[in-house]
Amino acid sequence: MSGDPFELPERDVWTVSRLNREVRLLLETSLPALWIEGEVSNLARPASGHLYFSLKDEAAQVRCVMWRSTALKLAVSPRNGLQLLLRARLSVYEPRGEYQLVVEYAEEAGEGALRRRFEALKARLREEGLFDEAQKRPIPQLPRRIGVVTSPSGAAIRDILHVLQRRFPAVPVIVYPTPVQGEGSAEKIAAALGRASSRAECDVLILARGGGSLEDLWSFNEEVVARAIRASAIPVISGVGHEVDFTIADFAADLRAPTPSGAAELAVPDSLEWLRRLNKDAGRLRNAMQRRLDTLAQRLDWQRRRLGVSHPGNRLRQHAQRLAELDTRLRRATAALVDHRRRRLAHARAVLAAQSPARRLEAARERTAGLERRLRSAAGYRLQALRARLDAAGHALHTVSPLATLERGYAIATDPRDGSIVRDAAQLGPGDRLALRLARGRLEAEVKSTHGDPDSGPD
Fold it and tell me: Where in the chain is the domain with CATH 2.40.50.140?
């Protein structure tokens, strides 16, 4: 650095790209994902499938981008004018230096929060067993009195009374008035249910309200109402909203109707149908009674005829005939039995004769004589064969016997000292004793001299 006081220090000059990049990194790393609510405007849907729009309120707006992968997962489709609740992270679009929100999740504002509360409460109460079908009570087929828990000034009570009047006007109705919308209405509905249950004036209760938005029906999604329905000693029919509307009260009730009018139809039968059924049953009863009378008359006539047939004289004649028949059967059976016994005796005699010991002994003697003859013949043949084998073996033995060799003039020389056979002249010397075995008799000799085998060459 020079000593010039007016010289500027060395500067770190940033490019615009570097600035935007650093700002983006700063925003993305400094702030977590945010929940933001606002109205959709300037929505663009390019061919890429990504969504680009602005989220605004009364005083400001911010650019938003929703990638195609996120948009495909959402249950709500963004459109201009729609109020959305977003979860997004803050970022910067570097080419233009504009900060924007990268949307990760979106739902309709207001109703979406209520819907989450609805699903959470429904899951908790179902886990608790409040909606179990085993706890549902049967609805009486023909109630003596019907109670209606609803607003006395709404359209629902008029529809219910009109349907009840048309279907079964003879059943009286008691209305338990209560507000069905607004601050504290859920507690008042529960109190009306408890009041109707404690009075026990009715056989069935209709909990009703006309249609509306989720916010309008929210009183029937409160836990206090669901528990009041289950605590009621009287079965409850829920008829809240339109057919597409479902509330926690519908799940807790013993029976769910799509509308208030539908609840009234489920509470009572159709009187005209009942009259038709009663007339039909009356006709069936008359026919059954007539058939029963005809059957009894026939039975009475049959009993009269049977009484005439059962006169004592007739019975005695029948018994006499029966006795004669039995006597004949007895005689036949006795003769057949005797004949059967005779045949059995003849058969036993024949069997005894066949099994007599004399015949068996005679047969045994004949068999023994035959066996003896066969044994003698076999023994003779066997002895002849053995003699022939013995003669052949003796002849063969005599052929190889040393005695036969001695008969031809040979002698066996042994050393008298140890009895060993002398095979070589070198085994003895002059003066040694020598024992000779002849064909007949033995000799003792003294060796005078020895000579080697002439075939083996000179000593």
Answer: 16-109
370 backbone φψ class: left, alpha, beta (φ>0; ψ -120 to 50): alpha
> What is the rounded CA–CA span in Å between residue 313 and residue 325?
18
Strand (E) or helix (H) holding 43 = strand 34-44
The pLDDT assigned to 113 comes to 66
Other Cβ atoms within 10 Å of 10 Cβ, number: 7
Give the pLDDT means over successive 10-residue stretches in the chain (459 positions).
Answer: 58 82 79 86 91 90 92 84 86 86 83 76 90 91 93 91 91 93 91 94 93 83 92 94 85 93 90 82 88 88 75 72 84 89 86 76 84 87 88 79 76 84 82 82 84 57
Kindly state the tokens that stand for 99.
């900060």
Half-sphere exposure of 246 (CA within 13 A, CB side): 6
The residues, ordered by sequence, that sit 6+ positions from 97 with a Cβ below 8 Å of its Cβ are 16, 19, 20, 23
Query: 282 burial class (0-12, 13-18, 19+ CB within 10 angstroms)?
Result: exposed
Q: Walk across the sheet containing 204-209 and list its strands.
A: 173-177, 146-150, 204-209, 236-240, 255-256
Number of Cα atoms under 13 Å in the Cβ half of residue 424:
3
Rounded CA-CA distance 343/173 in Å is 97
Which residues in the chain are classed under CATH 3.40.50.2300?
140-269
d(CA 87, CA 174): 50
Q: Cα angle at 73 between 70 and 77, to 5 degrees? A: 85
Cite the DSSP H helix spans in 176-311: 185-199, 223-231, 248-252, 260-267, 271-309
CATH superfamily for domain 16-109? Nucleic acid-binding proteins (2.40.50.140)
Q: What angle do the packed helices 185-199 and 223-231 form, to 10 degrees?
A: 0
Sheet holding 433-437, edge to edge: 412-414, 433-437, 442-446
| 421: DSSP letter | B
* CATH class of the 140-269 domain in this structure: alpha beta
Instruction: Quote the pLDDT of residue 240.
Output: 92
Q: Is the dihedral of CA 387, 388, 389, 390 positive or negative?
A: positive
C-beta neighbour count of 160 within 10 angstroms: 27
Say which residues have a Cβ less than 8 Å from residue 161's Cβ, sequence separation at least 6.
173, 264
Angstrom distance (rounded) from CA 208 to CA 261:
9
What are the phi and psi torsion angles at 221 (to 5°)? -105, 10
Q: What pLDDT, on a 0 to 100 scale, did the predictor assign at position 8? A: 57
